[in-house]
Amino acid sequence: MKCLALLASLLALVFPAAGQTTADPELLSQINQIKAVDNHTHVSKLVEPGEVDDDFDALPCNILEPGPDPTLARIANPRFLEAWQKLYGYKYQDRDPSHVRELVTAREKVMREQGDHFPAWVLDQLGTEYLFANRVAMGRGLDGPRFLWVPFDDALMSPLNAESVSDTPDRKAFYGREAMILKKYMAAANVTSLPTTLDEYVAKVVTPTLEQQKKAGAPAIKFEAAYLRTLAFGIPEPEETKRIYQRYTKSGVPSKAEILKVQDFLFRVIAREAGRLSLAVHIHTGTGCGTYFDLAGSNPTQLESVLDDASLRKTVFVLIHGGSGPYTHETSFLMGKPNVYADFSEQDALIPPRALASVLREWLEWFPEKVLYGTDLSPGPPQLDWDVVGYSTNLTARRGLAIALTGMVNDGEITRERALEIARLVLRGNAIKLYGLKD
């Protein structure tokens, strides 16, 4: 009997029971009425003819060797067709090129009519009240208070020649971008060349940059470090780090180990300053773009030495994408740390509502007050630009959330009233409280 019981337990682990697959219609209808706070996007600014928006991401995927698009990112996704119909009155059930050209024309007409209000008009269609824009700089149409800037600060932790860590074509391209951004930050701080000591660099570049970002209204800063290195930030060695910095300030190429030591030190300095300024620290976790992406290095558990650093407990960390892909389970437990939250952006763009519901149900059964909504919407061609992607991911997110909560109600874990309360927390309440937004 013990063997049979053990076998049953093992089978339950390997073949879990089928979860809830449909949402209660009334609960879904109520969830669809909630005005959301989108915690993570790469929204486009409005551009003039011939103008290019190069600020939508510090490390844009479109400069890398292309890889295959996941199924839900392809134009065949039925949600995109629904978005065309709802947003721009698309009359067809196909994707015939001539019909798509009509769509583009209809979209351009709406953009002309809305003018600089077009981005806010899109938010109204999506049921979004506030949207966090992860951008190098904001731009036309992305006005407060509904659009909030989340700047990128990886560049601040990489002041030295990064040749030794540019060990893949992706990283070579991305470190080049970081060097360009650091020059912009230094110019804004009126610093013409790298200070000779690390303490001076922190005082003259790092702190003024963060203070300026805070003054500009940023509720958080963003790190895309998983594209540049592993998230396993080692314990800093301050004196050795200062010697390394001073040795290579003017010339020379530090080794990979030396570069990582400087980054280990500066990441914590930046995070500590962010805490002082009440800026949350957003960190990309889980799968990423590029055919050389180090998936193992993006596991959010790699961050434990940072999350367990007592000197950083006043800093709030948000695990962006919540370990999207293989690491969502680990995220459930990391949210148990007092200063750790997670959003499910990107997941609602890559997996269908049923699969998303499984992730959300596990998170909500642990720490519903720590879960944030996000879409990771980003620019593309007119027929698949951020408005269309945003519509699709918004549908997936709300339906996935409704499926998860329906299952919890049906299994007697929560009441229907509590289900709606949790939905409000996830879609807006948690973010309102975390970032101090006007409700």
Q: What can you see in these coordinates?
A:
It is a single chain. By secondary structure, the chain is an alpha/beta fold. The chain has a single domain, classed as TIM Barrel (Alpha-Beta Barrel). About 45% of the residues lie in helices and about 10% in strands. The chain contains 15 helices and eight strands. It has helices spanning about 1-15, 25-30, 80-90, 95-115, 120-125, 170-190, 200-215, 240-250, 255-275, 305, 330-335, 345-350, 355-365, 385-410, 415-435; strands at about 35-40, 130-135, 145-150, 220-225, 280-285, 315-325, 340-345, 370. The strands form two sheets. Strands 4-5-6-7-8 form a five-stranded parallel beta sheet. It has a three-stranded parallel beta sheet with strand order 1-2-3. β6 (about 315-325), α11 (about 330-335) and β7 (about 340-345) form a beta-alpha-beta unit. The longest helix is centred in the last third of the chain and has 25 residues, at about 385-410. It is globular, with a radius of gyration of 22 Å. It starts with a helix and ends with a helix. Mean pLDDT is about 95; it is low at about 1-20.
